[in-house]
Amino acid sequence: MTVAVDMGRDAAGKAVSIDLEELLATRLLVQGNSGSGKSHLLRRLLEKSAGRVQQVVIDPEGDFVTLSGAYGHVTIEAADYSEREITGIAARIREHRASVVLSLEGLEAEGQMRCAAQFLGALFDAPREHWYPALVVVDEAQLFAPAGGGEVAEEVRRASLSAMTNLMCRGRKRGLAGVIATQRLAKLAKNVAAEASNFLMGRTFLDIDMARAADLLGMERRQAETIRDLARGHFLALGPAVSRRPIAVTIGPVATSARSGSPKLVPLPQAPAEDLHDLVFGGEPIEPVLPLAAPPPPPPVAAEALIERIAADPAPARTDAPAQPEVDVEAVVADVLRAIVAEPEAATRGAAVLYQDYQVRCRMQGLARPPLDLEAFTRRLAAARAGIVDGVDDDWAPAMALAQELPGEMLGPFLLIARAAREGAPAPDDAAIAAVYGTSSLGRARRLIGYIEQRELIVVRTDLGGRRSIAIPRLGWTTASAEAA
């Protein structure tokens, strides 16, 4: 059963959701200039999926620590711990499935990259028995996976980039689903961005970023100008977890807020100029009316105490999630194959391309692991193209045994002929055979029939009226006569 996360509304006012299970398998990239609403989008995703999946947030600005009060996330102030303690905490997080926010606010850029590398490396190196599914959200990802060198040490840059690459390229098998957000695609390492299959593109102004965003969304270059005109909180979405075609999404409201908000205009002080002069240059002290100072930060928590808290407070279980019903695997596979074959463009697409579509459709119908590998799918696809969608029963076993003597791409046309012969239906014409063969050339279809006849699998008879019938002598099946053209 699909677990949908409501993200907002499209241009028509319809709800737009993200398939959480599909997101865990395909990852997400969010892009937009400062002020476009990236952090708001991430907060919406985290709030709506809280309690359904473990969440790990890499937070360079400390904006997401407010999730701890409302949703039970454990806040880790990275500046209070050593690299060794951060590694141990990360290992316990995977073991106990705790949702956490790693706040890097108190560190310089190099320290943030070093800490993120240690933390992500420990998550990635967890033992196999702790490979539970988790969303790993990285805000300002260009800081941790820069496209080029910067002012930090090369060793630190390499370690951080390697950790981000492992998260996006190899993390899926370990249950880690990367959700990365960046202000500029041009500053993000391409091998990190390329591993995402879902995209939410917000407002951006530079031509190079608009061009890359348009390429990822499958838009023409002249359409890239629309990305510049997007309002705050408006994104273009594409991907198997969201939509198969680019759609406009307005992100919905959130329940929590960041500690630092957008700057707002406030009235200037109304004190006379001479009083301001005295305040600036140390004259007679004047008690200004100022906002109350923020309370001092709480004292740092020892690493051992934080580890004990993580162990004692696992991720909250979602009690209102519906029970997963039993799924009829064979029925789902048959429905997916029937839908794929019904698409007009499927006849000209290769099996490897259609196999990806098959996997996505199976997951959307509740199969986390589609049952067919590429080779088995290719044979089932050939049978489906021949009209045999609901599997092959025992009566088909002799025909399938004969088909083993042919190359894989000829299986579909042979089964089409065999199906007509078994039912005593008219022999399929050249156009029908060509369509199953994946070509529009009738000449290729005729040469294919001649090749199969040379292999002594079929016998073609043409009567005086030019009507063709095809027999399969080894099975004792034969079609009725029909026009070949």
Automatic annotation (TrEMBL):
Entry-linked Gene3D superfamilies: P-loop containing nucleotide triphosphate hydrolases
Entry keyword Nucleotide-binding: yes
InterPro entries registered for this protein in UniProt: ATPase_Atu1862_pred, HerA-like, HerA_central, P-loop_NTPase
Coiled-coil ranges (or none): none
Protein name per the record: ATP-binding protein
Pfam families: DUF87 (PF01935)
Keywords on record: ATP-binding, Nucleotide-binding
Domain Helicase HerA central: 15-74
An MF annotation (GO) of this entry: ATP binding
Organism expressing this protein natively: Sphingomonas baiyangensis
